[in-house]
Amino acid sequence: MLAKPRFRWLPMPYHSILLFVTWLLLNNTVAPGHLVLGAFLAWGIPMLTSGLSHPQPALHKPIKTLRYALMVLGDIVTANLEVARQVLGPLDQLHPALVALPLDIEGDLPITLLASTVSLTPGTVSSEVSQCRKFLYIHALTMKDEAELIATIKQRYEKPLMEIFSC
Amino acid sequence: MNFILELVVSIFLLIGGGFILVGSIGLMRLPDFMMRLHAPTKATTLGMGGLLIASMILFTLREPGHISVHELLITIFLFITAPVSAHMMAKTALHQKLKMISRTRGQELIDPASQQLAPKQSLEQGNDGVSVKS
After folding, report:
1. Which residue from B24, B28, B43, B58 has the least number of CB within 10 angstroms?
2. What is the 3-state secondary structure (H, E, C) of chain A?
3. Domain of B24?
4. Which residue in the set B30, B70, B126 is minimally distant from A91, CB to CB?
5. Is the distance from CB of B134 to CB of B116 less than 8 angstroms?
6. Using CB atoms and an 8 Å cut-off, which of residues 74-103 of chain B contact chain A?
């Protein structure tokens, strides 16, 4: 399911919102002049560049995306505490591993999001995607049980992403 | 500027600085490249978060009626770029076949991964070679 532009005059609505907010944050103001200029840029830039972008799976549940972002933010904090503890603790208790995670989600954007999430959260860095887009290679700083690690990632991160993109 | 504001800002600065220090210590202590990659991608993200929160509190409360939120942008850009650069470095390490310490499990995956292939069929059930035998 690829995103089709709903309106011809607003080809990428989420990009427009992002650009608008970024402009206001960059200028650190909500002055009326900047609101107008920001709105113009948020409309104009996607109009010019929408032809260049690859079609990506449509975002089906924007509210769920927000919840997912908050969950990942929480996990980043725990990931940091955990990695800090592991780094400062005895190193011979770390059992690094390379794991191939079978992917169920499709599309470049969802896989990128999953890979980024995996990199930001507890003890794992995504390191390669197979050409067929079916496997994500992950390096874990310390791993007790491979099946458990794969199940956690699939349950906690892949499932909500699949719901968000409904693929 | 009152004492409590200074205290809160200092606490956030200390937390941020502490995490960045831990990230750097990890970079020095961990034994191989792939493991070293973990410390800066994670510890530093939260460290920067702490510093930016301190900055937001300080500049918002110092002058009444002035809200400073553009630090949020740095956070967002950091969250976008940190995993991408980590991924690129890990990818390069795999392709260069950098040595991992010997107790790393799943080393047979280095070959298929560096050629962007799927893992071999027989390895799909048990990559560490233990669950295959049992």
Report:
1. B28
2. CECCCCECCECCHHHHHHHHHHHHHHHCCCCHHHHHHHHHHHHHHHHHHHHHCCCCECCCCHHHHHHHHHHHHHHHHHHHHHHHHHHHCCHHHCCCEEEEEECCCCCHHHHHHHHHHHHHCCCEEEEEECCCCCEEEEEECCCCCHHHHHHHHHHHHHHHHHHHHCC
3. 3-86
4. B30
5. no
6. 79-80, 82-84, 86-87, 90-91, 93-94, 100-101, 103
Q: Are B94 and A127 in contact (CB under 8 A)?
A: yes
Per-residue model confidence as pLDDT tens digits over A62-121: 788 888 888 888 888 887 888 888 888 887 778 888 888 888 888 888 888 888 888 887
Q: Decide if A95 and B37 are in contact by the 8 Å CB cutoff.
A: no
Q: Which of B38, B79, B110 sits opposite A98 (nearest CB)?
A: B110
Residue type, A165: F
Quote the tokens at residue A44.
């104009």
Number of domains in chain B: 1
The CA R_g of chain A, rounded to the nearest whole Å, is 19
The residue among A101 and A7 whose pLDDT is bigger is A101
For residue A35, give Cα distances in angstroms to A14, A51, A145, B106. 17, 26, 52, 53
The C-alpha atoms of residue A90 and residue B14 are separated, in whole angstroms, by 24
**Smallest Cα distance from B1 to chain A, Å:** 22
In the predicted structure, residue B109 carries a pLDDT above the cut 60:
yes
Query: Does the interface predicted TM-score (ipTM) exceed 0.85?
Result: no
Q: Which residue of B has its CA nearest to A85?
A: B22
